[in-house]
Specification:
single chain, alpha/beta, Chitobiase, domain 2, TIM Barrel, Alpha-d-glucuronidase, C-terminal Domain, eight-stranded parallel barrel, globular, binds 4-O-methyl-beta-D-glucopyranuronic acid
């Protein structure tokens, strides 16, 4: 059989006979909810399938918990279990979506008990993924999520294209409508559920109001019905001017009663089809999108209009994106700075949002660059709840043609201590809601899976989706153990496989940073169109505000309070002091916060320009090792995925050389400072 990649990390490869024989025989699987649409039933089917594939055991599912079960796998909610069998005192209080897994309960039973039905399916996947990794040890423990919101955002358009999608057309939409064949949607939900992600926003944040057509509302119902048995809920992105553009009203002013009624009415229609909608995601007044500011209203006025429309329907939330900025910013003004926008817009509104509004904040102040400091907005909201937005799609990180494993980057952000009020304020504790006592908060990530059989365009890049789910559940999970687990599940248990994938993965971000953008200058890619490929010159001279301010002598954004845009001052005082001062700013963010001559000496003693030259040579040279490392896996993994990945890594190695020479020649041309090692300019022009 060809390994297409469709199962992702849920391949359940068979164990060798000696391992599977050492596992006890399971007599039956008991599901405590027999409804075929319940996640508990789905979990039962999954365990049945998994045990057959991993261990070769063929087991029946039954719905009854009667007599004294023995050697049974029992799956359900804690509540359903205790109402028949009595409370199990050792199960601690579980959080929403949490679960209890005891693989050696009385009479050799396996207990998989969730706080809710989602928790039960999460526990089932945990049980299977342990077995699939050859881990037959007993486990008896509770597991709880760090935060209730663990979503993904697909940027799918109704015509089937995907914004920043690199893996074929949408699995949800085609030709303006929701597709009819839900096969891939179910497969996708299974993957999301296995990593404990509980919702997907199905359409692009640059939203199309035709989503509200009768056919599409029916389509949304189909998607939700398909995902529900996996415990995955759906949300939708809204186009702010829908009342005007779709509803025929003269305005979309959020304070106009007719506009409010229109949204209430649409919301009722949506809930009729999708009664468990998770809510609305809003991109407004951003990159040409209309929004409340277009009607001289505040962002809070806009958000609250949607929040009020959602209120009658349970726990639906408005995820209001903080990605609001002016993309016609004038670079000739030294103090202009896109990085200031989120705090400038949202800080003063902190006490003005309804309690079901959550501000969705990109992890960095600009836009998913290869390196940024964390967004200062994460330290400036107190009453308003926030969610952090990551990007699994590698928009600025090689677009799944290069492989960059992002767990180490996300960990750096989540581990960052913001020192709010001079107190420990680690971002993972802000996001979980603990630090500021938020009742609901968490994680979302831009994801761009498509109908490609690799899902994402590159087999290795699927590790990023897996890692995102793992970190949203437990932000303390280690990047290394995440990739090792993923490699075992996805490719096999052989040590060479695990070591090779771990090595390439852990080296991938530093390597990409070396050849794509050093010292906090951002990813030096094309800014105007594709965000792909080296184009350092495109960063400046336009309104997008992703500037480097490179001239013949100097480079970097002056974000100090003393002489620059004041962005450093948006951080809490202890952090602000670090970035204000060039001496205490770490080298990897030097050019993010300071404008310096190319001859400025780094803490390493090297000049900025020599550092650029050297890093690009080092990074590009290191990228050459990836296909060589990968070649070790020939014959150890299936040929199909081996060859596809080998091709991608070879392409990356070649393109890294293009990156090296483009960036180095560009700065050599600007600065006229020769490379101390006499490489730049030489081998190209002679
Ligand atoms: O990163 C930028 C992308 C846009 C995207 C925008 C956003 C959906 O280049 O394509 O639009 O961010 O996050 O809204």
């Amino acid at each position: 059989t060809i390994e297409t990649g469709l199962d992702g990390w849920l391949r359940y490869a068979p164990h060798p006979a000696e391992t599977s024989n050492s596992y006890r025989a399971i007599s039956n699987i008991i599901v405590l909810n027999k409804s075929k649409t319940s996640p508990v039933y789905t979990a039962g089917k999954e365990v049945q399938d998994g045990l057959r594939r991993i261990l070769g055991q063929k087991i029946e599912i039954s719905g009854e918990l009667s007599g004294t079960p023995s050697s049974s796998v029992i799956i359900g909610t804690v509540e359903a279990f205790s109402s028949t069998c009595g409370k199990i005192p050792e199960i601690p209080e579980l959080k929403e979506d949490g679960f209890w897994l005891n693989t050696h309960a009385e009479n050799d039973c396996v207990h998989i008990l969730g706080e809710n039905e989602r928790g039960a399916i999460y526990g089932a996947f945990e049980y299977l993924m342990r077995l699939a990794q050859g881990n037959l040890n007993h486990v008896k423990s509770a597991s709880n999520p760090s935060a209730p919101i663990r979503w993904v955002n697909q940027w799918d358009n109704l015509d089937g294209s995907i914004e920043r999608g690199y893996a074929g057309p949408s699995i949800f939409f085609r030709n303006g409508e929701v597709v009819t064949d839900m096969t891939r949607v179910a497969q996708f939900a299974r993957l999301l559920s296995s990593i404990r992600l509980n919702a997907v926003v199905v359409n692009n944040v640059n939203a199309n109001p035709k989503l509200f057509s009768k056919t599409n509302l029916d389509g949304l119902r189909r998607i939700a019905d398909t995902m529900r048995p996996w415990g995955v809920r759906i949300g939708i992105s809204l186009y702010f001017d829908s009342p005007k553009k779709f509803g025929g009203l003269p305005t979309s002013d959020p304070l106009d009663p007719a506009v409010n009624d229109w949204w209430k009415d649409i919301t009722a229609k949506v809930y009729e089809k999708v009664p468990d909608l998770v809510g609305y995601t809003i991109k407004a007044n951003s990159e040409g999108q209309p929004g409340p500011l277009s009607y001289n209203r505040t962002l809070a006025d806009g958000a609250n209009m949607f929040a009020r429309a959602l209120k009658p329907y349970g726990d639906g939330v408005v995820m209001y994106r903080a990605f609001v900025y002016n993309h016609h910013l004038d670079e000739s003004v030294w103090t202009n700075d896109r990085a200031n926008a989120a705090v400038d817009y949202f800080k003063e509104l902190d006490d003005q949002f309804e309690d079901n509004v959550i501000v969705q904040i990109k992890w960095g102040p600009i836009d998913f660059q290869v390196r940024e400091p964390p967004s200062p907005l994460l330290a400036n909201l107190r009453k308003t709840k926030g969610a952090i937005e990551f990007q699994v799609a590698q928009e600025y990180l090689g677009q799944q043609s290069h492989y960059v494993y992002m767990a180490p980057l996300w960990r750096e952000i989540l581990d960052y201590d913001m020192r709010i009020d001079d107190k420990p304020s680690v971002i993972r504790d802000i996001v979980s809601g603990e630090r500021l006592n938020w009742s609901r908060s968490g994680y979302t990530a831009v994801l761009n899976i498509g109908s490609d059989s690799t899902w994402i365009g590159h087999h290795l890049s699927m590790s990023n989706l897996y890692a995102y789910g793992r970190l949203a559940w437990n932000p303390l999970a280690s990047s290394v153990s995440i990739i090792q687990d993923w490699a075992r599940l996805t490719f096999g248990l052989n040590e060479t496989i695990i070591d090779t994938i771990t090595k390439i993965s852990m080296e991938s971000w530093p390597t990409y940073e070396k050849y794509s953008g050093n010292l906090g200058i951002q990813t030096l890619c094309d800014i105007i169109y594709t965000h792909y490929g080296p184009s350092p010159g495109s960063q400046d001279g336009n309104g997008w505000g992703q500037w480097t301010r490179a001239n013949a002598h100097s480079i970097g954004m002056d974000r100090t309070v003393a002489t620059g845009s004041g962005n450093a001052g948006q951080y809490p005082p202890e952090i602000a002091a670090i970035y204000e001062n060039i001496e205490t700013t770490p080298d990897d963010l030097l050019l993010w916060f300071h404008h310096v001559p190319y001859t400025h000496r780094l803490k390493s003693g090297k000049t900025v320009i020599q550092h650029f030259y050297d890093e690009h040579y080092e990074g590009a040279a290191h990228a050459q090792t990836f296909p060589i490392e990968w070649a070790k896996l020939e014959g150890l993994i299936d040929d199909h995925r081996f060859k596809q990945t080998a091709f991608k890594l070879q392409y990356q190695a070649g393109h890294a050389l293009v990156w090296r020479d483009s960036v180095n020649n560009f700065y050599f041309g600007k600065s006229k400072i020769p490379d101390g090692k006499n490489r730049v300019g030489n081998h190209i022009w002679r």
